[in-house]
Write a structure and sequence with these properties.
globular, five-stranded antiparallel sheet, binds zinc ion, five-stranded mixed sheet, 14 strands
């Protein structure tokens, strides 16, 4: 059965909010201390620290007087923080991500993950460890009947909204009947993505307008006096616009990824590692690293849900310059050239041609 996360807003009581803030703080502290320990061990002894070792260190920290307050929150989110750090290192060693970074109170999303032993699930009510009352969840869409969450993640975004995400084994997710279509998805220069079918998918509606509002709100913020009440108000406004842009972007990517996976048996995308993105300013400009990895993650799990195949191509060939009709390479193709003609007679839109080459490479790889 497929695992699926259901995310809802909730409204904590003042006591719950306080307990959660404290838990977020402890999660951040444990993550950062373990990261510091691992970094130091590697820098001074060329030694890698295992999850078990960092877990033993956590037990020591909780025994000391200085960090005794770690005992006031559930131990499970703290253990999970160590697991997340371990996963971040694994991704780093596999060259899928950069070196793990410290969590910042201001910039990182505050969250805490609870596994089965740290919450109670009864009659559709969720009670977290160290709390007496269940969370006041807004059930904006129904949870499938009879499911029991295996993991619960509580978070608070920069705009102050609280969320709970329930990971369940979902009986409603079934593989779709097979189809024989395939599509290449290219991070285009002029659009969000370009498909090998010739379709160009643009950014979410209102994004341009939201970005203009954001720029104005940021200018307003910069003009306010440090520490003033007006500055705090202006900051909240900036944060709210950021949150709205992120929400609309996520909705847009959800619709796009669902459609691509439903309509195609095979979806081919480029393996854009952080390294590739940094090298390739062209892509960095068109689609942000965050949006691309969000789209890729959605395609990955939806392909798994629906019995589809996602192929990632590590693309080092000059896909824009290669004619997708005859395979000839054109000599140079400056960025401002949007369409070009191959000696074979084919006329190409730069991005569509790249998406077609990506599709061919992905199908050849399989
Ligand atoms: Zn050609």
């Amino acid at each position: 059965m497929m695992k699926r996360a259901y995310k809802y807003r909730f409204y904590p009581t003042p006591e719950q909010a306080e307990q959660l803030h404290r838990t977020f703080g402890c999660v951040r502290l444990v993550y950062n201390k373990a990261l510091e320990m691992r970094t130091r061990a590697y820098a001074t002894q060329r030694r890698s620290i295992s999850y078990a070792e960092s877990s033993a260190a956590l037990t020591e920290w909780k025994r000391g007087a200085e960090l005794a307050f770690l005992n006031e929150v559930s131990s499970v989110p703290l253990q999970q923080a160590l697991r997340h750090l371990h996963a971040a290192y694994a991704a780093f060693f596999a060259k899928r991500a950069g070196y793990p970074r410290f969590k910042s109170k201001k910039k990182s999303r505050a969250s805490a993950e609870y596994t089965r032993s740290a919450f109670r699930w009864r009659d559709g009510k969720l009670t977290l460890a160290k709390m007496d009352a269940p969370l006041d969840i807004v059930w904006s869409r129904p949870l499938p009947d009879g499911v029991v969450p295996s993991t619960v993640t509580v978070s608070r975004d920069a705009a102050g909204r609280w969320y709970v995400s329930l990971l369940v084994e979902d009986p409603t997710v079934q593989p779709l009947p097979p189809v024989d279509t395939a599509v290449g998805v290219d991070a285009g220069l002029t659009s969000l993505v370009t498909l090998s079918t010739g379709e160009k998918v643009t950014n979410p509606r209102h994004e341009q307008a939201d970005r203009r509002k954001l720029a104005k709100a940021q200018r307003d913020l910069a003009r306010k006096e440090k520490g003033s009440a007006n500055r705090a108000k202006a900051r909240l406004k900036v944060t709210r616009i950021h949150a709205r842009i992120a929400d609309r972007r996520r909705d847009h990517l959800h619709k796009l990824s669902t459609r691509l996976v439903r309509e195609n048996q095979t979806v081919v995308i480029e393996d854009l590692t952080v390294r590739n993105l940094l090298r390739n300013h062209r892509l960095a400009r068109a689609i942000s690293n965050a949006a691309w990895s969000q789209l890729r993650a959605m395609l990955e799990y939806k392909a798994a849900w629906y019995g589809r195949t996602l192929v990632t191509v590590d693309r080092w060939f000059p896909s824009s310059k290669l004619c997708s009709d005859c395979g000839q390479l054109t000599e140079s193709l400056p960025l401002n050239i949007r369409t070009w003609q191959c000696p074979c007679g084919a006329t190409h839109d730069r991005d569509i041609n790249a998406a077609r080459n990506l599709l061919a490479a992905g199908l050849a790889d399989r």
